[in-house]
Amino acid sequence: MSERVGASVAEGENTIEERHNGAMWELEQKLDQSMDEEANKLKIMYREKGLSMWMLLTLSFQSLGIVYGDLGTSPLYVFYNTFHDGIKDSEDVIGALSLIIYSLLLIPLIKYVFIVCKANDNGQGGTLAIYSLLCRHAKVKLIPNQQRSDEDLTTYSRTLVTEGSFAAKTKKWLESKESRKRALLFVVLLGTCMMIGDGILTPAISVLSATGGIKVSSPKMSSDIVVVMSIVILVGLFSMQHYGTDKVGWLFAPIVFIWFLFIGATGIYNIFKHDTRVLKAFSPTYVYLYFKRRGRDGWISLGGILLSITGTEALYADIAYFPLLAIQLAFTFFVFPCLLLSYCGQAAYLVNHKDHYDDAFYASIPRSVYWPMFVVATGAAIVGSQAAISGTYSIIKQAVSHGCFPRVKIVHTSKKFVGQIYCPDINWMLMLGCIAVTASFKNQSQIGNAYGKMYGDSDDMKGLGTAVVLVMLVTTLLMVLTMLLVWRCHWILVLIFAFLSLVVELSYFSAVLLKVNQGGWVPLIIAAISLLVMSVWQYATVKKYEFEMHSKVSMSWILGLGPSLGLVRVPGIGLVYTELASGVPHIFSHFITNLPAINSVVVFVCVKYLPVYTVPEEERFLVKRIGPKKFRMFRCVARYGYKDLHRKDDGFENKLLTNLSSFIRIETMMEPALTSSTYSSAFSVNYTQESRDELLRNNSNHNNNNNNMDMFSSMVDYTVSTLDTIVPADSPRNATSFSQNNTVEEEEEEEDELEFLKTCKESGVVHIMGNTVVKARNGSWLPKRIAIDYVYAFLDKICRENSVILHVPHETLLNVGQVFYI
């Protein structure tokens, strides 16, 4: 009998406990809800203004100096690198020309300009832009900080897949395992790093191509002079970048425009003067005949043919600077025809002058225009590096927003076009890298080989082709996923695109691999270092977010402290920055358990980057109240796209407080009169010392479990003894301050909340930020300890602080230190 009674009592206690836990969970959900409702209120129509025809033509002209410099200077060295052992049969020239024609047709024109460039994220290009599209259409992002409210953004465009379709199966396959998400991100970062490597090598090679041409007319000139001249030009080139893409484009565009006119006109002249039969190269039959005659040598020569399409990936990355239609018009109706005419003209000349394969471009120029052409060619070769530099700025900005690259300064250089940016930190790093590569050329043969771009005898340049092809292969893989998940193309169309792209690109890849063992370590080492930096930073970023998630404080614990939070509420506004869009961050509990005071108004601020190109200013801030009105606690989520910048004159703090005031005003107008009293009375009924102690015990147990898991440790041990420093409401130490706070709060209830907020703002705003130190856990394997304790620690030390990025005044900043182990 006693056993039955005991069992009944135990069962009753369990039921009461379950009800209590359920009630507390429901209360917490009510007091800290998601931002869906606020997002729906803010949703507005947002459309970009259309461009007039004159503006479109103007931008098409400017794009010549930014986008097509590298691709446009390829005629300087393609035939030399294709036939660096000499031309044995004139039919080989026609076969090589046929390969160049169809390479330009299939890769830059059809694949990139008319297919890949359409896979832009509202004007943003590059592998990371495609990754953003995929993150919106599938749950492949490794940091799960997206909310339902984010999908209500007017710029958060996405399409839904049909259940049971091939796209739905692909989406489910990608989302099912974390390893597949990591593999996808690795592929994206690999393509990005190859582009960064190209941003270092291309300027060095282009400038050396220009200055190395001087030795054609002055063979006795010292090689050291050529190297010094190249370095001076590089310093000047990078020093001009801070003027912005708009001004640089106006400066460089006329040079490239004249260059394309010159090579197009010279091509027409050579075709009609030397041999019009080269036009039969437009027949793909000559591609087959070329490989049949030359065999393995013909296959290896694809490395030289590949030079005709280098700069194509920079074209895709640079679409952020100009509208897609402007780039399509410039390439289709001007760049592409001029390139074809130039290659056809050189081929016509080589058919009758096979011995001039090593200087086909300059040898085919009429003597009367040789020196003007030389000057323009020199300028165009220098400009050719601008596409790689501008593309590097764009992809670095995207990588920073995705949490895959250390925080660097981003400067907006145009009031008209948001996508035109400048990264001073990256700019000087690129300059130093280019100078180092340029200074490594010591003798005449190396400079001559640099003029041949990479496939002469210069071992340092042979890996660039591998980097270029790898970026193209990465883009093809991402485009397959984009066509399936975003465009929802039929799988047969996707298969045709993948097959044609891979046939061409894998052919080039197999050819350049035959040269890697002879050199090419420079671009590969640059890409490897960039990949290490991005991988370590992204890994630590994910772990820091997981730390925030695991260690966040229960709202029940906060409510258990009462309206005063067990502290003295001093006048002013405290902005507590956190990675979390919901929940109370650990730094806040760490702060209030070690300091005796907190501001009268507390706002938890989450600066959040979404996989969208921009967030309209009207939809940037979401504001929500946390808990009853007496607590005066709010949450504000500031949302940014990877195209958005934090400007010093933006007034982030003022905009945040303005949105907070608007929220309070709207809330006062719309809420029922008894909402506040309902919250307060409902809570005060359950607010007893017993329930408060229980909440404290539950919270301490939760944090002790986290410590046992060795997930993190605070700079001050976050244990039960620390929590005990929060003095209960009825203790002698806090009795006076608590009663005084209650009196003050009763008086504040009579005041208008907006006036109270204004008074607090005048008293001062404090920015509370977490200064987290990341360390490898004891017992971690050696590579992990090196990556976290040395690589990440170094990067975190030299990169810009969040307070600097957000332009927080130093005198209002309060850092809360903490350490966690991964």
Automatic annotation (TrEMBL):
Domain named K+ potassium transporter integral membrane: residues: 60-558
Main location, first listed in the record: membrane
GO molecular function, one term: potassium ion transmembrane transporter activity
Keywords for the protein's UniProt record, in alphabetical order: Ion transport, Membrane, Potassium, Potassium transport, Transmembrane, Transmembrane helix, Transport
K+ potassium transporter C-terminal domain: residues covered: 571-822
GO terms under cellular component: plasma membrane
Membrane topology summary: Multi-pass membrane protein
Segments traversing the membrane: 51-69, 93-114, 183-205, 225-243, 250-272, 298-317, 329-349, 369-396, 417-441, 461-485, 492-514, 520-542, 554-577, 597-615
Composition-biased stretches (Polar residues): 733-743
Pfam families: K_trans, K_trans_C
Compartment annotation: Cell membrane; Membrane
Region feature Disordered, mapped onto this chain: 731-750
Role: Potassium transporter.
Protein family per UniProt: Belongs to the HAK/KUP transporter (TC 2.A.72.3) family.
Name by which UniProt lists this protein: Potassium transporter
Organism per entry: Brassica oleracea (Wild cabbage)
